[in-house]
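Hey, I'm writing a tutorial for new members on how sequence and structure tokens pair up, and I'd like a real worked example in the thread rather than a made-up one. If someone can provide the structure for the chain below, I'll link this post from the tutorial.
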Amino acid sequence: MNFFRIASAGEFKALLYLCFSLLFTPSLIGQISIKGQPIDYFNKSVKDPISKLQKKLDQGELTLEYDKNFGYLNSLLKHLNIDASSQVLVFSKTSFQLKKISPRTPRALYFGDDSYIGWVRGGEVLEISSVDPKQGAIFYTLEQKRVDRPKFIRHNHECLQCHSSTLTKGVPGHLVRSVYTFQDGQLDLRAGTSLTDHSSPLRERWGGWYVTGSHGSQRHMGNSFVQASEIPGTIDRETGANLKNLKSLFDSDPYLTPHSDIVSLMVLEHQTQVHNLITRANYLTRLASNDDKVINEMLGRPLEERSESSKRRIERAGEALLEQLLCYKGITLTAPISGTSGYSKYFSSSPIRDSKGRSLYQLDLKSRLFKYRLSYLIYSEAFDTLPKELKNFVYKRLWGILNHRDSSGKFSYLQKNEAQAILEILRETKSTLPSYYSENKEQAQGKAALRKDSF
């Protein structure tokens, strides 16, 4: 074999492109380029809940009702199917409306499965993040003035300064941060900040947030402040523990509810990171597909042909998503947790259930957050819209994990009874499952599917 033959012009161009794409691959630098094809975040049309709502407003199909105290908040929550019991309160100055935010006037956040709403007392706008199935988080504001046809204004660069970084997995996304906060709401930057999710110890969570609920001997950073004279990172975790109400901390009467529910906070942390990893996996797969398309065109190969390096890129993205979906490295609670707002009951009342009444929305709250550790966002449009080859990989890996055929051992915390329950719930509640998930098919069919190439 001649290892020193002269490359053709097409091969040389392909080699240059490959070297360039590997040099700047997102897996190495964390950040993903969202400008230009195939992502084109700033220009592609979106179909997130807010864009759909705006279309109905423009066509006169619905109206938003205005309230003198809350502006359009109540009406918007209603149209987005977001319950007020999801309310959590953040008093750190970590929003662009920071001048109006303080421990006496915290910002309220509300969320559903695909939308997040921020309300500031006396604020000029509502802050909104809405999930597009392909493009991820899309950011808007809605002016808090009574008009005939309210207009949602999309924001890109301003919001992406914080909402597109390593903290959001390198894509436009969401984050829950724990910060050390002075009594005026300013951050003690000397002590640093941390991103929180299902793997974060409670002791490191909710700095800069109010927290209502019971958590026994476990401690968190909520409801507490840094004193100016203290050593950076030193706070009193005892005073703010197990608070049932916030009356001693500020006047909560002007808010929709007097709660900042601990269970709502935990679900919020889980959901934001799953959303981010769905978006990241989507982006990385589209980028890999685009790279292959360019190289294949240069070499005269079928455009849909997949390189081994692209397969590995897609599999790594799919594996990271699976870990988040399955609550990998989730903490073990050492005492039961209960909220105060009724959010637990609301969240668990989802009608998506199997014939035994089981649901991925069921909470545990004794030793962990969810009773069945597969994220309910597997039902989301964002998950269903994932590129085919990525979704095939995720489904096949998930099938193997739930049938205890995972050689990695990472997911051994899913005991046989829980894994079987998850599998049965999926069979009855998700109509788009691959055929090999069916209990009426021979398991050999599933084994064969797993042996095939991922794509």
